[in-house]
Specification:
Length: 252
């Protein structure tokens, strides 16, 4: 059964429907339809049926009131909660466009759903939708140490397992031939790769489709060199320690 939603369009110059130009109403309803359709697509609730996602039942006086019937497949409470960061990205962008249109006309949309006692500001001048923050991305060079588990494919690539994670790294056919010739399949190697990293919380994670092979680094460790590099990283803890003497002491 469709849900009934009431929207109230308010602004200093808007007192009743006779003050609302048809063009403004048409643009408002068109962008509202775009919001609902985008939301349905991103949440997987868009059906192939002819039934509309929402329909305008009537206009009311006072603040311009619009009574809508909304498809029960839509989680309208989530969409209208104003918790913008919890909405799918394209839905957020559609709401931002609608909010910007209202702001330019000093208008606000208030909303009242079946769970609300009184209308509350939703979007527009009284409650602007913030522009969605774009994901932070940087390009960098990484070194991945792991086991080569596959070479080749329809798209030339090297598949490497690092711990419990697999990375699919783009490579040229010549690079793949070199890896095969050197017998590095199922061997542990170091791969220097170019990647785009995206910030997620407090961590930077590589976008897997951007990984591109730059250089193969055979995984042959030099213990003394490893201790020297560790000393550089840990500074005071290794101050005065001679790497060669320390490795010699470990070997007995």
């Amino acid at each position: 059964m469709p849900s009934e939603v009431r929207l109230y369009l308010e602004g200093p110059s808007l007192t009743d429907p006779s003050r609302l130009a048809l063009g403004t109403l048409a643009r408002l309803l068109s962008q509202l339809e775009d919001v609902l359709r985008t939301y349905a697509q991103e949440t997987g609730t868009l059906s192939g049926e002819e039934e509309p996602l929402a329909s305008l039942v009537r206009l009311e006086k006072g603040s311009v009131g619009m009574v809508l019937q909304v498809s029960p497949t839509l989680d309208i409470d989530r969409l209208t909660s104003a918790r913008w960061n919890e909405l799918p990205p394209q839905t957020h962008d559609s709401l931002y466009a609608l909010s910007k249109m209202l702001l330019n006309r000093d208008l606000s949309l208030l909303i009242k759903t079946r769970r609300m006692r009184e209308p509350a500001p939703w979007i527009g001048a009284q409650n602007p939708v913030p522009q969605r923050r774009q994901a932070e991305r940087i390009e960098d060079v990484l070194t991945l140490y792991g086991k080569v588990i596959r070479l080749g494919g329809v798209t030339p690539k090297v598949d490497i397992r690092v711990g419990g994670t697999e990375y699919h790294i783009q490579a040229s056919e010549e690079e793949l031939k070199t890896l095969e010739r050197e017998g590095l399949l199922y061997k542990t190697v170091g791969l220097k790769v170019k990647a785009v990293l995206q910030r997620k919380g407090n961590r930077w994670q590589p976008e897997t489709e951007t990984l591109q092979l730059l250089e193969v680094l055979p995984y042959k460790g030099n213990p003394a060199e490893g201790i020297r590099q560790l000393a550089e990283l840990t500074a005071e803890d290794w101050k005065g320690v001679d790497p060669k003497e320390f490795v010699r002491s470990l070997r007995g």
